[in-house]
Amino acid sequence: MIRAIAVDIDGTITYKNRSLNCRAVEALRKVKVPVILSTGNISCFARTAAKLIGVSDMVICENGGVVRFSYDGEDVVLGDKEKCLKAAEKLSHYFKLEFLDEEYRKSEVCVRRTFPAEKARKIIEGLGVKLLDSGYAYHIVDCKVSKGNALKYMAEKIGIDVKDFAAIGDSENDIEMLKIAGIGIAVANADLKLKKVADIVVPGKDGDGVVQSLKILGLIQ
Predict the structure, then answer these.
(1) Which of 21, 111, 146, 196 is the most exposed place for a label (fewest CB within 10 A)?
(2) CATH code that applies to domain 4-77+145-216
């Protein structure tokens, strides 16, 4: 039985232009189990989105590098930003980096997608970090960090077996989350890598796929 949901934001409950799919919002509000937003975005963005959408105050941020258990609580930092800064410094010798939300990120470094990811990954190999492509930005993340590890951490803290979670996403930074959850669902516009690890790939794109997922799971009619 599904006792909680973890769902990505951009490209999963939003359209490609990052505007919310209101059908998904309405559906998520009907769900009677906790809904945890899981995103590459920063904590204040995730918490505000959770309030506006009307779901749980619990959020996974910065690709799993930060978690928060309540709106008024404290951020729990799970990643080492210093490693990421050192990797960014090395990349800056090869590419012009455009940093995003630099002063707000606590566990990672986020930059615009202005250079080839595979080349960058080779340059920072061995530094204890990885480069994730969310489809909207590149994230330099501590190798220990993933949405999956953050979901496991959060599940243990709130007393719900991680296998009683369903996870819904669209990009490669959702892979570990879908793998560790009891049921992993990819929406139709998902990255091919994510589709390969998903238990279910729904025919609907972004938020419409979320609505279909919730119906398949029996959480809404």
Answers:
(1) 196
(2) 3.40.50.1000
Q: Is the pTM of this model over 0.70?
A: yes
User: In terms of Cα–Cα distance, which of 193, 202, 161, 173 is closest to 38?
Assistant: 173
Give me the CATH code for the 81-142 domain, please.
Answer: 3.90.1070.10
Instruction: Compute CA 196 distance to the chain's CA centroid, rounded to the nearest angstrom.
Output: 17
8, 142, 170, 206: which one is catalytic?
8
Q: List the chain residues with pLDDT less than 50.
A: none
How far is residue 207's CA from residue 213's CA, in Å, rounded to a whole number? 10
**Which run of H or of E encompasses 118?**
helix 117-123
Residues of the chain with CATH 3.90.1070.10: 81-142
- 39 and 11 in contact (C-beta within 8 Å)? no
CB 54 within 8 A of CB 34: no
Q: What is the pLDDT of residues 117-167, one digit of tens each?
A: 999 999 999 999 999 998 889 999 999 999 999 999 999 999 999 999 999
**Given strand 59-61, what is the order of strands in its sheet?**
76-77, 66-68, 59-61, 35-38, 4-7, 165-169, 183-186, 200-201
How close are the terminal C-alpha atoms of the chain, in Å?
16
Structure tokens at 63: 């690709």
